[in-house]
Amino acid sequence: MAPVVFVTRPLPDPGINVLIESGFEVRANNEDRPLLREELMAGVQGADALLCMLSDRIDTELLEAAPALRVVSNYAVGFDNIDVAAARQRGIEVTTTPGVLTDATADLAWALLLAAARNLGAGERLVRAGEWTGWSPTQLLGEPLRNQTLGIVGMGAIGQAVARRAQGFGMHVVYCNRNRVESEIEDSLDAEFVALDDLLRRSDFISLHAPLNDQSRHMFNSRAFGLMKPTAVLVNTGRGAVIDEAELVNVLRDRRIAAAGLDVYEFEPKITEGLLTLDNVVLAPHLGSASTLARGDMVRLCCENIVEVLAGRPAVTPAPG
Ligand code: DGY
Questions:
Q1: Mean pLDDT of 33-49
Q2: Are residues 161 and 228 in the same domain?
Q3: 54 C-alpha to ligand 1 centroid (Å)
Q4: Based on the domain organization, do 227 and 194 belong to the same domain?
Q5: Within this chain, do residues 159 and 190 fall inside the same structural domain, yes or no?
Q6: Given ligand 1 and candidates 79, 289, 292, 293, which is best to mutate, with the most ligand atoms within 8 Å of its CB?
Q7: Residue of 37, 2, 5 lying closest to 303 (CA atoms)
Q8: Closest CA to 313 of 95, 101, 43, 79
């Protein structure tokens, strides 16, 4: 019998033909919407491999419902939606898509940083509303970049790509990370390793790239916001729950920080009330990896991981840990 692969969402080019060509029986959700929990539970029954999205919760209950499962291939680099320990305990490999979306996500972080720093969201709304009356010497003044300090929280591949781009803007980079990165990388990025509180106090811009886990959940809470500069701009293209979103609304409303650019949300796709009406926040719909190149490479990598594991070979990109 051909191994069964369950795919939870339609994927962009080059698509999942390689799975069919590899002789697998592919069962796929063909509707472009997240599966309901019961649909996901039903779908994994009898599956040897699962190609899932960051919106699919892969926990013990689900793994128990899929006794034949050998690999969970996540269409994302983040994997906080998966109980990796529970999967590995059952001999199930978990894979992610590192590397291929690094540039796309770093580019989007910069798009948000620039948009938030220079009031692009508010400016666009003004123009679209037909309320712009012409150039003004005082209108929508933003924050400068040159000679400012960019703080990067999480100096993995994406954090490093964001830091690399900062050189073009003439910024000083400080970072915090679980471990200090190699000195050659620090030197090439001209980046200074600091403690989180130091980063919060010194940064004019902060970009978040830490994975979501018990340590990072609500890392940006009232205490952290209290240490930030009132002119600081916060950008998040990682995971929403790294920020206490209710508190973010308070500090943005009271101008205790200048602005934010968000691509991810604590209760995604629900947006915390307040964010929608504030003018000093730019909101994107989780577009970090959404370039044709990155999303295509993510499909390839997900399929390759499934082919390798079902052939009894090591995964190409196993989840860390
Ligand atoms: C990821 O890969 O973790 C992004 O959030 C979606 O591509």
A1: 98
A2: yes
A3: 7
A4: yes
A5: yes
A6: 289
A7: 5
A8: 95
